[in-house]
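Question (not urgent): is this output format expected?
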Amino acid sequence: MAGYRDFGLMEGDGSGATPSAADNMIRSVRAPYKWATEREYVANNPAAGIAAVNTALKGGAVPRTPDNLLKFKKKHPPGTTAHLGLTLQAFTACRVVYAIWFGRDQEVTRSGQTWLD
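Got this back:
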C-alpha cells in the first residue's frame, strides 16, 4: 500500500505540512480520480489505497449545558470580560475573531430597539 510520503506530501511546498493537511491533499487528489475512473477516463485511482495520516481523534468542542452556564455566570458576573464574551457568543452567533470588534460603535437604534450592526 502506498503511503503519503510516496507522493511527496509533508515536504517542500507546504501543501502537506501537517498530518491534517496531508489528509486533505490526499482527499483532493482522490476525488477527481474517483470521478475519472467512474467515467472510464482512467483505469485506476492511484490515490485510492493511501491510508489516512491523521488517525488521532481529538474529540472537538463540548456543548455547554444549562448547569455549565449557571456555574459560569456565578463565577463571572455581568461587567466582567468573561461574561461579556459568553454573552456575545451566545446571542450573536458570530465568529470568535469578529467578537473582538463589537463595541458601542456597532450599536444602532431601530424602532426603539438597540441592535448590533
